[in-house]
Amino acid sequence: MTDRLTVHARGRASGSADARRKLLLVLLPACSLLVLLVVPQYLNSYWLRVLTQVLMIAALASSWNVVAGICGYFSFGNVVFFGIGAYTTAVLMSQFDVPFLVTIPLGGIVAAVFAALTGLPLLRLRGHYFAIATLGINLGVREAVTNVDWTGGGKGIWLQIPDMEPHAFSLYVFYMMGAILAVIVAGIILLQRSRAGYAMRAIRGNETSAAVLGINTTFYKVLAFAISALFSGMVGSIYIFWMGYVEPSQGFDMAINIQFVMAGLMGGLGTIAGPLLGAAALQIFSELIWSHFLQIHLGVLGLLIVLVVLFMPNGLVSLMPWRGK
User: Fold this and answer.
1) pLDDT at 183
2) Model's pTM, two decimal places?
3) If you write DSSP's letter for every residue of 193-245 in order, what string do you get?
4) In angstroms, what CA-CA distances link 99 with 151, 172, 205, 243, 291?
5) Contact 75/224 with Cβ under 8 angstroms?
6) pLDDT of residue 141
7) Rounded distance, CA 150 to CA 155, Å?
8) How far is CA 323 from its chain centroid?
9) Based on CB atoms within 10 Å of each CB, which residue in 52, 90, 128, 148 is the most buried?
């Protein structure tokens, strides 16, 4: 009788914990959405820009997470897709008068096609060979864009200034970046629950075993690479509209690549919330450290990130109640 009561009590406690966890998973996104919709309208231009940067890095880290976290292929050159999306929007708007909103999916599609074509040979490599090869692709595309006339060459491309007040324009870009982040997160949730998502995680676990089980590893690796590029390209399209100008060193900037890679590592790879937490933490730490250690802020920030990765190998998301789910 006592054993039955004990089992029953444990079952009720477990059910109560699951209910609290599910409630938390609903309330946190809802509260975050409410804050993101209301608070920015009362912020000055500086903090609005900081928050927009957080959303952009979160979107890029989530995009990179598809190939690096879910599929297990660590890419150092994902910023090439960001740059391709940016240049697609710049060329279409400046030379063909295509509306901005139309260029966003087109930027993603062009980046995804490029990823599929280059991914077929690249994804035959593994480990650091693949990482270095993706870095080389970014450098090669950057040099090609610099020497092509219709991309503006080294001079870059200027976009027409939107007919909006500065604060209204900043709000518009902020909400656009938030919307694309929501689309990316929703897409990754659907991907993880799909057959393709299970196949990608199998590849991450053991690619040889996945192939033995009948999984078409080449197809799913290229698919992950293309999905990552699709998302990154759309973010690049919004970024160039925000900046109003693009040139090779800006569109294919490795500093941006380093930021979203660090955000993914800090937050936790292979999770939904990890890149979001990592981007927010990285930007907050960067602003705080920059304000107190102006001359050595990059060194201090780098040391902080190393400590996080060493002592929390699963990222900041491992501290959350849902434990990275």
Assistant:
1) 95
2) 0.89
3) TSHHHHHHHHHHH-HHHHHHTT--HHHHHHHHHHHHHHHHHHHHHHHHHHHSE
4) 18, 15, 43, 16, 39
5) no
6) 96
7) 11
8) 20
9) 90
